[in-house]
Amino acid sequence: MAEELEIKELDQVVVRFSGDSGDGMQLAGNIFSTVSATVGNGISTFPDYPADIRAPQGSLTGVSGFQVHIGAGKVYTPGDQCDVLVAMNAAALKTQLKYAKPQATIIIDTDSFGPKDLEKAQFATPDYLGELHVDPDRVIQCPLTTMVKACLAESGMDNKAILKCRNMFALGLVCWLFNRDLNLVANFLREKFAKKPAIAENNIKVVQAGYDYGHNTHSSVPATYRIESKTKVPGRYMDITGNKATAYGLIAAAEKAGLHLFLGSYPITPATDILHELSKHKSCGVITVQCEDEISGCASAIGASFAGALAATSTSGPGVCLKSEAMNLAVIDELPLVIVDVQRGGPSTGLPTKSEQTDLLQALFGRNGESPMPVIAALSPTDCFDAAYEAAKIALEHLTPVILLTDAFIANGSAAWKLPTMEGLQAIKPHYVTPEMKGHYTPYFRDEETKVRYWAIPGQEGYTHILGGLEKDGNTGAISTDPENHDHMCRLRAEKVAKIPVPDLQVLGDKDDADLLIVGFGSTYGHLVSAMQELQAKGYKVAQAQFKYVNPLPKNTAEVLSKYKKVVIAEQNLGQLATWLRANVDGLVPYQFNQVKGQPFVVAELVKAFEDILKK
After folding, report:
1. Where is the Pyruvate/ketoisovalerate oxidoreductase catalytic domain positioned along the sequence (predicted)?
2. What is the per-residue pLDDT for 492?
3. DSSP annotation of 599
4. Mean pLDDT, the chain, as a whole number?
5. Cα 367 from Cα 385, distance rounded (Å)
6. Which helix (H) or strand (E) holds 256?
């Protein structure tokens, strides 16, 4: 019987795990995505969890989700809707069904659909499938809790600990459905619970039980599925989140520059994982300090920069507000500093666990005085590595603070990443003082071409100097209130940033004859490229350009934006990039697509909106 089940090959599939915040959906999703990346599939993930520390069990507001899109080739987004929905309780089914395709396979734990569970989820009748208009034939109704208790009956674990393993049964069932190698799952669990081997082995046992349940019952599906990688580039791969990639990019930059890395930070969702990750790497010369507040996190990093380290500070939008005074100190002192802003929903405390692109104007202008800073926006979880490395390179070579914008979507999301080699990374050459300057060095003596000052490290004989928040004379370095000098220094600091070389803006798609150019910045890259491809498949001439370098803008920005009949700027705010581009490109009158929902774009909505513009 088991051998008769057909195995179908798919190009791509989207799976969404959902349940209570304590049900381990993030872990199950992470393991499934890691296993998929290990076998060479393209992946894109989207953790979607509530801001509550622990919402009431079974409540509609406490549902946590993890969506992963797996593809035979490159995957750009976590997908609009899922092909498989795992719903661990009634509330999860009710709130997450909207993310499932009409024909999706749904896996539920029938033990969590009792009268009290249905009441908490606000179902009106015991017929919850009928109430939601779900065809029972596409639902795998499994007594999951009962099965897990039976599996671990002899384990010696208490009931609470046993129930924490339910997510592994669901994972095993999904692994069966997609022919995943359970040895890879076992390796992951043994590594994760290396200090608690009994827990690892019990979880592995439950994963196997879930797999066997699917295999032995066929679980009401006509076939299982396999997703083979179409293109395999040799190398070492891992499933990496944006926050971890950001941390690795900073470590690599420090190593390449021959410096210690210092991170001064204060915990804040969703940036805290950068602090957690960097704190693990003391062996790489990384120094991390969890400070008492945001401004001290930034100020301590400035002190480390003055002392000669590659300095960074990590935060989210509310923290940038609090760091702004210290950031300005780095501007006037012209010290290298990387400020990582993992954007989240605002204003104020706003939506701590949701994602937006609403800090762009704050990054550009959110400080007192003329306070220019380079701004880089990472495009994807894996691009966070490259963007962090580039931000550090610019900071060290141009003696300036640099803002790196990521956001909750790419910081918590993950993708398959091919590990780079140190030899393949660009050289980083900090703009140090020269031996010829010894004895007559002043802190604002500059390279005539780039306008970058020279970096002297305290303790170097013959390079004594003072930096501070008061304006200094450009020649002597002494405190100055002279109006002409202040005007001159403001212009020099702006000119220095404007002269930083950045790559040209690249145009994808029908770049020579497009009727519409789709423009965005940062993390919307995958959704906008996917929308472009769907429009091309419909026969439209469409191109796409994504800004990674926001300040300074690429030199060909005006040329590109002026070339096309219609330009639409799509962003997850109310028009901040559009404002910045209109200020810098004469005559630009773009269409705009703006959403501030705390959720990623839906490709189908983008396609419809852009198609309407094309038809006008």
Report:
1. 22-212
2. 98
3. S
4. 94
5. 27
6. helix 242-257
